[in-house]
Model the fold of this input.
Amino acid sequence: MNLSKNFTLTELVKSEVALRKGLDNTPGEAEIASLKVLTEKVLQPIRDHFATGVKVNSGYRSPQVNKAIGGSPNSDHCRGMAADIEIPGLPNHQLAEWINQNLKFSQVILEFYMPGDPNSGWVHVSYNPSNLKKEALTAVKDKNNKTVYLPGLLP
Done:
């Protein structure tokens, strides 16, 4: 099933964790509708602007898959409203900045990016039509190896 011109449902629900652990990662109708909006409002515009493929590392996550990876119980991934993405060859910081400056979204998080290593980390982006707050954050590990979220997109 196509969600937009260049994105399919299959790529937005693919989960290596689900495959390894034998977990069902099938979204319901509401989650599929949300994935369609996410692809139309965020992922397809990114694809169109950069004129290259967008790698979806994680899209929809069933509650079981989300728990298996240690995701937040309130994750937008479980509602089909978020994706973790990269564009091979494009620094993730640059991708996050472009999203922040050019699109409507709920949240963009530059996750575990290391300056000097353009391929490090990934970009989390979410789109909830009723909460387009345009929150930009950077996820890093603190000295105790705990994930902390800092305001803004840090270089």
